[in-house]
């Protein structure tokens, strides 16, 4: 993918799409560097320690996003996915479980300016940040059994896992979602790798399955009884 100007970054927080409330986002994946300099070294040396994930954002205050961000402060394992391009199916995503450490509902208050807020959260869990793909992004899906597009995301090596994040943004009825794999795009012998709990309300879920998995094609299947808006991101790490 070529470089691009960011105009439509997506931010899914739990069961909410809060993209339209933000005008800036920063995502940093790193590692704590530990000094391991010894006698004989002429330059200080370091080793990579524990991984870190930090997500920061800024936007303009509004009561719906205020209540949603306020409720996440100090709460562990909030599922957050970022779509850096435009949120379309097949485009990149970054997702993880976070704990919001700081929410400033009034980050600037100069007369005549828009009332702004800022928020920061740190990644949580041994899996850290997952770089993946938006497999499904659907709105107003009514009673049906359907599938997303099969994409060649790759095999899962021993020691790796396939990870998936589900964001249910609007709900009426029941929604069943699974992540499946196959060894070819023809989908002749698929295997279910991840099954989410049946969704009946606005919600989110993070799930995974350990490798090794030799299949390299992946697809999200879903059955709806009612009317749903939902997003599914999948990645291998």
Keywords:
237 residues; mainly beta; 1 helix; 60% strand
Structure notes:
With 237 residues, the protein is mostly beta strands. Helices cover 4% and strands 60% of the residues. The chain contains 1 helix and 13 strands; from the N terminus they run ββββαβββββββββ. The chain has one helix at residues 63-72; strands at 10-13, 16-17, 22-35, 46-60, 78-83, 92-108, 116-124, 130-147, 151-152, 161-182, 191-195, 203-210, 217-236. The longest helix has 10 residues, at 63-72. It is globular. The mean pLDDT is 94.
Draw up the topology in text.
Elements: E1 10-13, E2 16-17, E3 22-35, E4 46-60, H1 63-72, E5 78-83, E6 92-108, E7 116-124, E8 130-147, E9 151-152, E10 161-182, E11 191-195, E12 203-210, E13 217-236
Antiparallel strand pairs: 1-2, 1-5, 3-4, 4-7, 5-6, 6-7, 6-8, 8-13, 9-13, 10-11, 10-12, 10-13
Task: Describe the structure concisely.
The protein has 237 residues and is mainly beta.
The biggest sheet, with number of strands, parallel, antiparallel or mixed sense and barrel status, is: 13 strands, antiparallel
Mean pLDDT: 94
Shape annotation: globular
**Element order, helices and strands?**
EEEEHEEEEEEEEE
Instruction: State the helix count.
Output: 1
What radius of gyration results from the CA coordinates?
20 Å
Question: Which class best fits the helix and strand makeup?
Answer: mainly beta
Low-confidence stretches: none
Give the percentage of residues in beta strands.
over 45%
**C-alpha end-to-end distance:** 20 Å
- Helix fraction? under 10%
Per DSSP E runs of 2 or more residues, the count of β-strands stands at 13
